[in-house]
Amino acid sequence: MVRSIPADRVRIMRCAVLGVLLSFSGFAADPTITFHKHIAPVLLEHCAPCHRPGQSGPFSLLTYEDARKRAGQIAAVTRRRYMPPWLPESGRVKFAGERRLTDLQIGQIGKWAAAGAPEGQASDSPRIPAFTSDWQLGPPDLIVEASKAFQSPADGADLYWNFVMTPAVSSTRYVKAIEIRPGNVSVLHHANLLMDRERSARRLEKVAGEGFAGMDLVVASNTFDPDSHFLFWKPGGAAVVEPDGMAWRLDPNNDLILNVHVQPSGKPELVKPSIGLYFTD
Ligand code: HEC
To answer: Predicted confidence band at 105 (pLDDT cuts at 50, 70, 90)?
Structure first.
């Protein structure tokens, strides 16, 4: 015979199970940890590059209200180190621009969420950096834009598209910084920029200026060009400024090839990238 369990016993058992789950998944509440003092600096530095309007993150994490609504979720994804996205194993090598939270930061987020996400004093808050939707380094010396947008299909497998752009310079210039504006963050996984001094890749275009498909791009000059720099865009990345003395050379009639990895988003999207170039002597 099956013995029935009284309802209040069931409730107590449920609470016990939940309690065990919480003690495994969470941190002990610490109400002295507040959003403005401890959490905002972490979110602004490590999350806002993607979690703000116009970037790849699915929602903003700029304000207390943004963070309060998702405190539990933020605690869970940081504890699992799912966010911020950073794949290299920790330890042996320290990378420039490393995107990894410290154990202390993860613990603070967890204890803050467990305490019900206290706000604290707004006067403790760091200033929200002036994120601009314009060129991050100010007006570029030269802007090149793809002449034709690429239409990403609604669905299907990932694909690669190459845009050919020829910066209009009449003499050799030295590029100290670039900003790649991918044109549509919702479908772009990443983009790499290659130099094609022989203008060979453009022969693959069926119609001049429309670009061409393909992942493995081989350019005729076959060196690691431009001048051994690896130029790319990835979500949340800042504009790239080269160290002093390490500008790269741009000659008249050089082609820049922007090789983009497109992930269809469920609806057709247009991708029309542009690149801002900053010169030095
Ligand atoms: C490099 C860009 C980038 C950075 C930096 C980043 N995120 Fe995200 N985040 C994303 C993208 C893209 C998604 C949506 C896709 C996904 O869930 O993987 C996402 C999803 C999330 C989600 C939803 C996860 C889910 O399971 O649905 C949370 C919560 C989140 N991010 C929190 C954070 C927090 C907190 C930080 C900083 C500590 C952070 N993210 C940093 C790009 C970023």
So the answer is: very high
pTM of the complete model:
0.80
Assess whether 78 and 185 both reside in one domain.
Answer: no
Please give the residue range of the domain that contains residue 257: 142-280
In short, whether 109's Cβ falls inside 6 Å of ligand 1 is no
Residue pair 47/55 in contact (Cβ under 8 Å)? The answer is no
User: In angstroms, what is the span from residue 98 Cα to ligand 1's centroid?
Assistant: 16
Q: Which CATH number belongs to the domain containing residue 190 in this structure?
A: 2.60.120.230
Does some domain include residue 135? no
Contact at 8 Å (CB) between 114 and 28? yes
Mutation probe of ligand 1 site: the residue of 47, 108, 109, 187 with most atoms within 8 A of C-beta: 47
Residue 67 pLDDT > 90, yes or no? Answer: yes
The answer to whether the CB of 72 is under 6 A from ligand 1 is no
Shared domain check, 227 and 150: yes
Q: Judge whether residue 253 has pLDDT over 50.
A: yes
Name which residue leads in pLDDT, 129 or 123: 123
Least trusted range by pLDDT, from 21-35, 43-57, 215-229: 215-229
CA–centroid distance, 50 to ligand 1, in Å, is 8
Q: Residue with the nearest Cα to atom 33 of ligand 1?
A: 83
Long-range contact list for 219-225, CB < 8 A, 24+ apart?
Answer: 219/194, 219/195, 219/257, 220/196, 221/195, 221/196, 221/197, 225/194, 225/195, 225/197
Does residue 260 sit in the same domain as residue 180?
yes
Q: Is 40 in the pocket of ligand 1 (CB under 6 A)?
A: no
Residue 93 domain-assigned (yes or no): no
Total of domains in the chain: 2
What does the pLDDT look like over 146-155, one tens digit per residue? 999 999 999 9
Ligand 1 atom closest to 234 (CA): 1
Q: Could you give the C-alpha distances from 149 to 163, 208, 211, 217, in angstroms and in order?
A: 9, 13, 9, 19
Average pLDDT over all residues of the chain: 88
Do 109 and 169 belong together in one domain? no
